[in-house]
Amino acid sequence: MKASVGDRVITVSGTVGTAAREGRVVELRHLDGSPPFVVEWADTGERSVVFPGPDTVLEHDDGARAAAAAAVEASADDGAQAVPHTTWRVQVDVFEHGGHTHAQALLVAPGEDLGAGLDELRSVGQARRAPEDPDLPLVGDELAVGRALRRLASRLLGDAEHGLAQATGEHARVHA
């Protein structure tokens, strides 16, 4: 997760009933935008150093991203090494029909080889409402999307393990 000054940060609590927090990145600790970064929280105005976890979403400010790229280029002109940047995108489509929810997650990594010469990976997740359960479409969506994303993550981690094992000639275990 790479940030630029001005990007929006949303942290969702793992505790039921606890509100999500929103803030803006106000300072980077690394030129390439890698964590940690300093966030000013909208609810309190306080600033804190953030090491984003799986409960954090980063929404990029396109204007800030362009300014950061220009700053990296300028620093390269001063003799510093430019930092490579690639954007991977995930799209999730959700389909509902008769108590069944189907989610398809698509990861697109333009120009990257995700294995077998592919630059995209797909995964699916499903949820089914039992007849006696209440009709809660959002819960079905969350289950199906969560399952699709978990499968996508497992595939990526498995591919990373395989790549490490091939490169080193030894068994590799990646911790999630």
UniProtKB/TrEMBL annotation:
<dbReference type="Pfam" id="PF08940">
    <property type="entry name" value="DUF1918"/>
</dbReference>
<dbReference type="Pfam" id="PF08962">
    <property type="entry name" value="Rv2632c-like"/>
</dbReference>
<dbReference type="InterPro" id="IPR015035">
    <property type="entry name" value="DUF1918"/>
</dbReference>
<dbReference type="InterPro" id="IPR015057">
    <property type="entry name" value="Rv2632c-like"/>
</dbReference>
<dbReference type="InterPro" id="IPR038070">
    <property type="entry name" value="Rv2632c-like_sf"/>
</dbReference>
<feature type="domain" description="DUF1918">
    <location>
        <begin position="1"/>
        <end position="57"/>
    </location>
</feature>
<protein>
    <recommendedName>
        <fullName>DUF1918 domain-containing protein</fullName>
    </recommendedName>
</protein>
